[in-house]
Structure to design on (269 residues):
């Protein structure tokens, strides 16, 4: 099979434990882009949190794509225009916020290059802001402040607690929202039907490609849908066990150039 699209999660996949892309991986990504392979980054991160990575890989030069907010938004890096955008129903924001308060969860959404916090700031919100280079804006009235369209809300708490909360929220809102954990301590609240696989269907149509021409690499719970959907679904050696169980291939870890290994084995060989 001749693959024409390489899709990668960022944290735990493309970047190593130091949140850096190794020189080997970067060089190989540049090489395949020069050969006409399209590269896309698919992450739960907000769009501003992906920009530095996209710039480092020169996606604007080569015509790559960014799928942010777990796929709720797709940006064509060359034109800097959205080719797909799905937002949370505004009428549900008060209910989402009240659920967070009732269950003592952190909650954030995103505005420009900032994270808007509505129920205090915990260490997980600080982590989210730090990873993405965002300023935290804590507001007194979250529902009144967020009077604009948002692609997602992120709820935060200890992983064991969120594991118990996730099915409770799915039971209440699963027919109206997409709800899943991207990390044990991050609970993503998305527009209904949004996940990375759904977003990639829109990208494939935009590029006039089939899923059989696509490789997807990931490690986390939110990568599961795209790994199951891809022509070649690749799990990192450091991936969650359920992700590895669903993958077509398990590559090396993110600290051992697992993405580079995939490029060498399936694209350049």
């Amino acid at each position: 099979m001749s693959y024409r699209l390489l899709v990668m999660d960022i944290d735990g996949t493309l970047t190593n434990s130091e949140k850096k892309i190794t020189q080997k991986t970067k060089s190989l990504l540049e090489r395949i882009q020069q050969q006409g392979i399209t590269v896309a980054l698919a992450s739960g991160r907000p769009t501003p949190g992906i920009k530095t990575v996209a710039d480092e890989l020169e996606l604007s030069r080569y015509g790559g794509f960014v799928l942010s907010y777990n796929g709720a938004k797709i940006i064509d890096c060359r034109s800097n225009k959205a080719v797909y955008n799905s937002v949370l129903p505004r009428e549900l924001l008060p209910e989402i916020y009240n659920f967070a308060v009732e269950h003592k969860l952190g909650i954030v959404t995103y505005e420009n290059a900032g994270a808007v916090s509505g129920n205090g700031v915990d260490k997980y919100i600080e982590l989210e802001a730090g990873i993405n280079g965002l300023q935290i804006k804590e507001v007194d009235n979250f529902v009144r402040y967020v009077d604009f369209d948002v692609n997602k809300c992120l709820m935060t708490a200890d992983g064991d607690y969120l594991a118990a909360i996730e099915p409770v929220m799915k039971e209440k809102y699963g027919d109206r929202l997409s709800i899943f954990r991207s990390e044990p301590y991050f609970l993503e609240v998305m527009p209904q039907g949004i996940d990375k696989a759904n977003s990639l269907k829109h990208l494939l149509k935009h590029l006039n490609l089939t899923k059989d021409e696509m490789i997807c690499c990931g490690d986390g719970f939110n990568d599961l849908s795209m790994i199951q959907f891809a022509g070649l679904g690749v799990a990192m050696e450091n991936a969650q066990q359920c992700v590895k169980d669903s993958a077509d291939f398990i590559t090396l870890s993110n600290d051992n150039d697992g993405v580079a290994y995939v490029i060498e084995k399936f694209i350049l060989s």
